[in-house]
Amino acid sequence: MNAINADTRRCALQEAKRWIGTPYQHQASLRDVGCDCLGLVRGVWRHLYGAEPYSVPAYSVHWAETGDAETLMLAARQYLEEIPADTAQAGDVLLFRFSAHHIAKHCVILSAPTRMVHAYWGQCVSETSLTPWWRKRIAAAFQFRN
Predict the structure, then answer these.
(1) CA 146 to CA 139: how far, in whole Å?
(2) Residue range 80-101: average pLDDT?
(3) Engineering a disulfide at 5: which of 1, 17, 98, 100 sits with its beta carbon 3.0 to 4.6 angstroms away?
(4) Residue 85 to residue 13: CA distance in whole angstroms
(5) Does 54 score more than 90 pLDDT?
(6) For position 140, what pLDDT does the model report?
């Protein structure tokens, strides 16, 4: 990866870590106030690039279980650069499927080869282990564009 991508990854990870402790709040994206997993990635995006490219429409807590559109995956492919999952580095974004028959529903910022920063129901933004349980559910990996 070139130096610009390394700088982008470093800045993305530094910003993601600033969100640690932000309470979980569905559909929110305000550091220290509230966010969900997408809200964290959106906040890192704003830190890197400024205004978001579009307003995120309202979505239910169970949006992924009630539809079959790969909404999260399609948005990631439009605004991030897809990379092979086995090449993901700290500062990159991982998407997860909780089961093979569901669409990608969760996103995180990789913080180390075995660590990730993410928001999830009932917890504040945290840095946790990328355990084998999580690894086998990776649906795709992306990097922020330069």
Answers:
(1) 23
(2) 94
(3) 1
(4) 17
(5) no
(6) 97
Q: Where are the domains of the chain?
A: 3-143
> Under CATH, to which class is 3-143 assigned?
alpha beta
Q: What is the pTM of this model?
A: 0.92
Contact 97, 137 (CB under 8 A): yes
Query: 20-25: long-range contacts (C-beta < 8 A, 24 or more apart)?
Result: 20/117, 20/124, 20/125, 20/126, 20/127, 21/124, 21/125, 22/119, 22/124, 22/125, 23/124, 24/119, 24/120, 24/121, 24/122, 24/123, 24/124, 24/125
Other CB atoms within 10 A of residue 124 CB: 15
pLDDT exceeds 90 at position 116: yes
